[in-house]
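User
New here, explain this?
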Amino acid sequence: MRGLAFSLAKIISPAVIGLGLVGAGAALTTAPGWAQQAGKMPVRPFGPRVRPPAGARQPARRGPKPDIIMTKGMWKVICETLPVAKDKTQKACYVSATAIDPKRKNVFISLIVLKTPRKDKAGKVKLGHMMNVRAPVGVYLPTGIGLEIDGKAIARVPFIRCNPVFCESIAEARPKTLAQLKKGKVARFIVYAAPGVGLPLEFKLAGFTAALNKLDSMK
């Protein structure tokens, strides 16, 4: 698709993975029983992991409970204190929202936006934004995740991995994408249960700008 507003990050540091992308488990807790139901899709899926392994559960949380700094509409700014080494922790903050299919509670999409340091072409370190999009185990992986804003197709990004409870995409959120989300009214993220069987979920964008601005103002 031309004009992709997402681009997969070429390098994702272990610190980023630990501080938000994997550690941001709070974004999913609003989906009742998602860890147990993630393998149940409305049609038989084609993905490599149709069902999570027996006994799969949400990983046990280490450290203090996440703090919800702000809530605007369906968007939350959340901060967690996460372990990075023995006797050492680091604070990670991110914007989070989860959409759940009203008829199929096991179908969800969670979006996490966080700031990450990145080097520009001149070698200077600047803060950018990453998006982590999560969907149930059993989605059709080759189609990836589509994004529409106010009915306009914006991008499609691939899944990069699955664990026992969800599959995810990790991508750079370019300024153009963030500007479109700020101006828009409704974003639709679309995953697929099978070829041609889309499962779109809507994110009301009211409150996204305030949440992102709050994240950007935090040190």
Q: What stands out?
A: The first strand starts at residue 6 and ends at 7. The first helix runs from residue 14 to 21. DSSP finds four helices and twelve strands in the chain. Helices lie at 14-21, 34-37, 175-183, 208-217.
